[in-house]
Design goal:
The complex is a heterodimer of chains A (246) and B (80).
Chain A: H1 3-6, E1 12-16, H2 21-32, E2 36-41, H3 47-52, E3 55-58, H4 64-78, E4 84-87, H5 102-130, E5 133-138, H6 142-145, H7 151-171, E6 176-183, H8 189-192, H9 196-205, H10 214-225, E7 236-239
Parallel strand pairs in A: 1-2, 1-4, 2-3, 4-5, 5-6, 6-7
Helix pairs in contact in A: 2-10, 4-5, 5-7
Chain B: H1 3-18, H2 39-53, H3 68-79
Helix pairs in contact in B: 1-2, 1-3
Classes of the chains: A alpha/beta (246), B mainly alpha (80).
Bound molecules: NADP nicotinamide-adenine-dinucleotide phosphate.
């Protein structure tokens, strides 16, 4: 018996935003844990998907059609309904509220929050039938503590928490858990856009004095989707080097 | 479609999704009491019926449903 089998077997997992950064680390980690993975992004995961033997899905999860296409392709690639859903796809579009356009707000909501509702809704039926499921949504510490220039982003990430808690209660009787992992600053393309000055300010807020690595977030996700986390639902697991502490 | 035909399908799907005894699935059976079904169970059953009969039932129409007979009425109305 492999380790994966001992822990409840190999599951069918869909990771959105899996081509880079945190999502790529999550897909890698779940694959190493013995799960079959489907990796979704707009640009495709290319070599990573090949290396993991996973389905490489190109779809834009900010639209209804894109979500339908992504989940359908995942079901096909995985050979069945999605048992583990990890919503990692996300963007930032920083700017002060005073100068924000309605379209900026709507884009961010569509990509970061509405996508989470749509993917969750789409996979729920299979999970309800199977009487088992794991949904992990990637939030952000910014959703809890705020950050200037990120009103829309913070709103989407706080929205993910409320959504996940409510859904957790709706589907708890079906052994489906819904949780949030809320990272602090993690070394990815998203944070490489920060200027030196912004980076210094960011670092000063982190108790550990460093940015986290994507695999450190993936470890938290791997726990929440595991059999061991069967009694954990509606919770927020913060992975931020002590940034939000106190 | 005959009511009895629809009842047969409802019975089959109720046995699968609600894990109840087929004999308990009669027109007068109340989901919450006789079939021990909660709102999520009912949604699951209706989703299965939508697939089986190729119909679509909006959320609002589920609100007042209490008995198996009402589900049959609903399906019959949809099938026209
Ligand atoms: N990095 C951090 O410090 C940090 C901190 C807290 C929370 N987070 C959250 O963690 C998640 C991942 O962030 P990251 O840092 O790993 O970002 P990243 O390196 O920029 O990766 C984002 C991923 O999402 C995909 N994506 C973006 N928009 C998409 C869309 N509309 N449809 C489908 N896929 C889309 C991207 O692929 P394509 O571009 O090819 O579509 C990529 O795979 C995000 O939700 C982010 O908000 C990050």
């Amino acid at each position: 018996m492999t380790q994966a089998e001992q822990r409840g077997g190999s599951r069918r997992a869909l990771v959105t935003g899996a081509s880079r950064g945190i999502g790529a680390a999550v897909a890698t980690r779940l694959s190493h844990a013995g799960h079959r993975v489907a990796l979704s992004s707009r640009g495709g995961a290319g070599e990573l998907a090949e290396k993991l033997g996973g389905a490489d899905i190109r779809a834009d999860v900010s639209t209804a059609d894109g979500v339908e296409a992504a989940v359908s392709a995942a079901e096909e690639g995985l050979g069945g309904s999605v048992e583990i859903l990890v919503n990692c796809a996300g963007i930032t579009n920083d700017g002060l509220l005073a100068r924000m356009q309605d379209e900026d707000w709507e884009d961010l909501l569509a990509t970061n929050l509405t996508s989470v509702m749509r993917t969750s809704r789409r996979v729920l039926r299979g999970m309800m039938k199977a009487r088992w499921g794991r949904i992990v949504n990637v939030g952000s510490v910014v959703g809890a503590i705020g950050n200037p220039g990120q009103t829309a982003y913070a709103a989407t990430k706080a929205g993910i928490v409320g959504f996940s808690k409510a859904l957790a209660k709706e589907v708890a009787s079906r052994k489906i858990t819904v949780n949030v992992v809320a990272p602090g600053y993690i070394e990815t393309d998203m944070t490489s856009a920060l200027s030196e000055a912004q980076r210094a300010v960011a670092l000063s807020q982190v108790a550990m004095g460093r940015f986290g690595e994507p695999h450190e977030v993936a470890g938290a996700v791997a726990y929440l989707v595991s059999e061991e986390a069967s009694y954990v639902s509606g919770s927020v697991l913060t992975v931020d080097g002590g940034m939000g502490a106190g | 479609m005959e009511r009895s035909e629809i009842l047969e399908t409802v019975r089959k799907l109720a046995v699968e999704t609600l894990e109840v005894d087929g004999d308990a699935v009669v027109e007068t059976a109340v989901f919450a009491d006789d079939l021990d079904a909660d709102s999520l169970d009912l949604v699951e059953l209706v989703m299965a019926l939508e697939e089986a009969f190729d119909i679509s039932v909006p959320e609002e129409e589920l609100e007042d449903i209490e008995t198996v007979g009402q589900v049959i009425d609903l399906v019959q109305a949809k099938l026209g």
